[in-house]
Design goal:
By secondary structure, the protein is α+β, with helices and mostly antiparallel strands. It contains two helices and four strands, in the order βαβαββ.
Amino acid sequence: MGAATFETYRDGADVSAAFRDAVEEAGWEHGHGGYTGTIAEKYEYVIITRQPMSYDDASRLASDLLERADPRVEDKWGPAGAIPVRQPTSPAGQQTPDGWLFFGRASS
């Protein structure tokens, strides 16, 4: 079986709750049979940075890490990456995220 790259965003400051919601939603959208190539195949996550950033910056960072085969997110059976995101209307120095970008490779 192969691997597919995924990226998904969920609102909420609590990374665990956002991850659970993202996995559950992907399972309902893509099925529960496995090998969906989505976050539905993930059981854990690894926080890449604690500093919230814009969605665009988070997406660029995720793409860069995947292109460089970063070992934290490269394994299709390993954890998803998690990057805290702040909305454009949030203050630049805000330490609490508005949501999380999850990304990685998943079995497909």
